[in-house]
Specification:
heterodimer; A: alpha+beta; Uridine Diphospho-n-acetylenolpyruvylglucosamine Reductase, domain 3; Alpha-Beta Plaits; 8-stranded antiparallel sheet; B: alpha+beta; 5-stranded antiparallel sheet
Chain lengths: 357, 499
């Protein structure tokens, strides 16, 4: 990692763009370029803005510049037996901290530990006027002012350019293991996932695909042992545990190799197996479902909405497709007003999420 | 606290045609749901920060979402400000009414609409009390994790508006981590669903923005909360220290060992003595500080961790470590902590509860500085501390009937908050800014940041009718407040726009 603070040049770039109405494409190392609508504009390169500013293992917090590679952050945390519990997907070796938080990307542990947004404690950011501001901080509890730092998580750089982020970290579990149950139907698998979640078991990940149900346990040795006995299934070795969940998280599992459109449905976890034609992979106790399907966007979105959620066209969409789930008109209006509040000239990643933003 | 007059310069200066407003609201509500007589309005003149009092113009008590929508639409049209109120237990004057505004009480929204044990959620109306949710979920072995000490009284709507925490937030998070969906009504009367039935929603994270927004962005009319399985077992340890610094270090040592306790609370000598006198929890009276460390989870996990934590506490220099033998003793250990505020209240005619957060490692210097200020202002201070997450609750003891003591207390309190900011913390960990800490907002945030906050408010509430004058100060106020501080040698906001 090349420690470097380029916030002043980033600020100047945004100020110039604002003055001359030039749209900017905010980018780290581009590992999430596939996600979201294509956005035109001059590249605002964050990738050189690197460095860990503060890491206090006993305070459970790390603050870094947003161009810092995620792998460097996870490495140093791991040296102290800590981790980011939202297990961010990388989608490319050079994923940066900023891109990860901007997309609010979370992995297998998400339903049990929380999403990226849940671990964001503070941020230093540039709005579309080129103002540098700090929100939140490095402490766990902070209710002064609106929660702007969490708002940045998932805004995909359309509201501000994060320069630094502070995130809460947690100790790594002492032990992990994965169990596989062969043969349950989709419905039976969902029932099992829900029944485990109602007990204080150390369940830390679940996935279901091709009539195989996978469950990961993470905790103290004794609590893992007891839960393993209660849950049953076929226990896998450590290598499997590491590789399998990585492959799900980073979309390297065979399921993700199809060239059909890949949809992410975020729905009520107990939604019955949905009547959409395609190949499914369930995660997050049933709350996140991947669907590889050629069904129409309309059909898929309708089914997701009926299940209390939303559908995102994640990969393999055709040019010009809307990728994110349309917002209700009242909500879209608030979104547009918020966009204006942060980026009055509309220069930050215009159209990356929705064409209106 | 005794009465003092809140500074009201920033609120809507216009005077409202009261009779016209009453005539406009009457048809929208049942007869007894609009309070206009002085004796009926009196109970609403303050919230839990009783030092600030003000009579509302009138009080509306709707019990239906359509009524809330109609009231807000009407107020919007007539340009009348609105202050939402839950149970009024807030400690920062967030629900302080406006003389020229409507106080909108959500107290009649008391129904638990749905508990889904399978999905582990509860869908409730905003006036449901925090504890009532856990009580209703108990039959399914589930509970709602955030547990403010006021949980028997405060409402879930108020909890969302304040992003309230409790003694268990170190492990289980704040309100923002434990809700999934909100229904809100905008000042224009529009009903919006924020969040969803899944774990995330499309678009911006408005759920995060609404949480902790102190009634400034919208009125919450329904909340879907997440429920957790009750742990198999909870066990508490009590450790005594002859030095607060050692107690502080012990907290860091527990966390470095990879253990996240469910609760980790510290009390200093004055708080220990007050609590002991009040509830006889058996606390060691000669200790300078005690730590209460609660571990929960599966039976096995708790057994493993109890053993480790005992060792860590001893190695950190605890003079005594006790483990509660049974549930009754666990409750006794907690009783002293939970009763700490009223207990301290018995030591003195009045007390003022502060709420700053600091990075934990700065605890020794902050405690030292507070002790010095306590001498300087000649006012005792007791400390109760959510040690795990650095949230301090200094309680300043004073007597409002003594000339000038209230003013000295407020100044002392303000300086404690400024100290929290100086060491990298915040002026409020969980009680909110409200009216109380509005000046200290100028210390924590610069004009650019405050301007950004105002722009966010405008996105939701362009006319500035929801809870005006709270939570985010105008730049003008900061300029005036800042001017008071120039004699410390620095001009806080030289670049400030004055208008
Ligand atoms: C003894 C005591 C102990 C306490 N302990 C804790 C503690 O441990 N942790 C903690 O975090 N807090 C604590 N508090 C503070 C307080 O209880 C919380 O802030 C609580 O969440 C307030 O809830 P309420 O229903 O009383 O809200 P109110 O006081 O009525 O209102 C608080 C704010 O929320 C807004 N509001 C209320 N309802 C709505 C709604 N439906 N829609 C929009 N805005 C709304 C109001 O306008 C106001 O700004 C304590 C208070 C007391 C008196």
């Amino acid at each position: 990692m090349q420690e470097q603070d380029i916030s002043v040049s980033l600020q100047e770039h945004v100020q110039e763009a604002m003055a001359s109405h030039i749209p900017l494409r905010v980018q780290g190392n581009g590992t999430k370029d596939f996600l979201g609508r294509p956005s035109q504009g001059e590249r605002l390169d964050i990738s050189e803005h690197q460095g860990i500013i503060n890491y206090e293992p006993t305070e459970l917090v790390i603050t870094a510049r947003t161009g810092t590679p995620l792998k460097d952050i996870e490495k140093i945390l791991s040296d102290y037996q800590q981790m980011t519990p939202f297990e961010p997907p990388y989608f490319g070796a050079n994923a940066t901290l900023g891109g990860t938080i901007a997309c609010n990307l979370s992995g297998p542990w998400r339903p049990y530990a929380g999403a990226a947004r849940d671990f964001v404690l503070g941020t230093r950011l540039l709005n579309g006027k080129g103002d540098i501001m700090n929100f939140g901080g490095e402490v766990m509890k902070n209710v002064a002012g609106y929660d702007v730092s969490r708002l940045m998580a998932g805004a995909m750089g359309t509201l501000g350019v994060m320069l630094e982020v502070s995130i809460k970290v947690l100790p790594k579990p002492e032990q992990e293991t994965t169990l596989i149950m062969h043969g349950p139907s989709g419905r039976a698998a969902l029932d099992l996932m829900h029944s485990w979640a109602r007990l204080p078991h150390p369940v830390s990940a679940t996935a279901y695909h091709d009539e195989q149900l996978y469950v990961r346990l993470s905790g103290t040795p004794d609590s893992v042992r007891v839960a393993r006995e209660l849950i049953g299934g076929e226990e896998q070795d450590e290598d499997f545990t590491r590789q399998f969940w990585q492959s799900i998280k980073n979309h390297q599992h065979d399921f993700f190799s199809s060239t059909d459109p890949l949809w992410r449905l975020s729905v009520a976890s107990d939604t019955r197996p949905m009547q959409l034609v395609g190949n499914w992979l369930y995660e997050w106790g049933g709350a996140q479902r991947w669907l590889s399907s050629t069904e129409s966007a309309e059909t898929i979105r309708k089914a997701a909405a009926e299940a209390g959620g939303h559908a995102t066209l994640y990969r393999n969409g055709a040019q010009g497709d809307e990728l994110f789930h349309p917002l209700a008109p009242g909500l879209m209006r608030i979104h547009q007003q918020l966009k204006k509040a942060f980026d009055p000239k509309g220069i930050l990643n215009p159209g990356r999420m929705y064409k209106e933003l | 606290m005794n009465e003092s007059q809140p500074d009201t310069r920033e609120e809507q200066p216009t005077s409202v045609d009261r009779e016209g407003l009453i005539a406009a609201l009457r048809p929208l509500l049942p007869e007894d749901a609009l309070l206009i007589d002085e004796e009926d309005l009196r109970p609403y003149e303050c919230d839990g920060l009783s030092a600030y009092r003000r009579m509302p113009l009138l009080v509306a008590l709707p019990d239906h979402i359509d009524q809330v929508r109609a009231i807000l639409r009407q107020c919007y049209e007539l340009n009348v400000p609105v202050v939402a109120r839950g149970a009024g237990t807030g400690l920062s004057g967030g629900a302080l009414p406006l003389e020229q505004g409507v106080l909108l009480s959500l107290a009649k929204f008391k129904d638990i609409l749905e508990i889904d044990p399978h999905r582990r959620i509860a869908r409730v109306q905003p006036g449901v009390r925090n504890l009532a949710i856990s009580q209703a979920a108990d039959q399914y072995g589930l509970y709602y994790a955030p547990d403010p000490s006021s949980q028997i009284a405060c409402t879930i709507g108020g909890n969302v508006a304040e992003n309230s925490g409790g003694v268990h937030c170190l492990k289980y998070g704040l309100t923002v981590h434990n809700i999934q969906k909100l229904r809100i009504v905008t000042i224009e009367g529009e009903l919006l669903d924020i969040g969803g039935e899944g774990l995330d929603a499309a678009g911006y994270d408005l759920l995060a923005l609404m949480t902790g927004s102190e009634g400034m962005l919208g009125v919450i009319v329904e909340v879907t909360v997440k429920l957790l399985p009750k742990p198999d077992r909870a066990q508490v340890l009590l450790a005594a220290f002859d030095d607060v610094v050692k107690a502080g270090a012990a907290v860091g040592n527990i966390i470095s060992a990879g253990i996240i306790p469910a609760g980790l609370e510290m009390m200093d000598k004055l708080a220990i003595q007050a609590a002991e006198d009040f509830v006889h929890a058996g606390y060691p009276l000669d200790a300078e500080a005690i730590l209460l460390c609660e571990l929960d989870g599966t039976n096995e996990e708790v057994s493993e961790h109890i053993y480790q934590v005992r060792e860590i506490l001893r190695q950190s220099g605890a003079t005594e470590v006790r483990t509660a033998r049974d549930e009754a003793e666990r409750m006794t250990f907690w009783k002293g902590r939970k009763a700490a505020f009223p207990a301290v209240g018995r030591l003195s005619p009045d007390y003022y509860c502060m709420d700053g957060t600091i990075p934990r490692k700065r605890l020794p210097e902050v405690l030292r500085a507070m002790a010095d200020m306590s001498k300087e202002y000649d006012l005792p201070v007791a400390n109760v501390f959510h040690a795990g997450d650095g949230n301090l609750h200094p309680l300043i003891l004073y007597d409002a009937n003594k000339e000038g003591e209230l003013e000295r207390t407020e100044e002392f309190g303000g300086r404690i908050l400024e100290l929290c900011v100086q060491v990298g913390g915040t002026i409020t960990g969980e009680h909110g800014v409200g009216m109380e800490k509005i000046n200290q907002m100028c210390v924590q945030f610069n004009p650019l940041e405050l301007t950004q906050f105002h722009a966010i408010k405008e996105a939701f509430d362009p006319r500035g009718l929801l809870n005006p004058g709270k939570a985010v100060p105008t730049l003008h106020r900061c300029a005036e407040f800042g001017a008071m501080h120039v004699h410390h040698g620095e001009l806080p906001f030289p670049e400030l726009e004055r208008f």
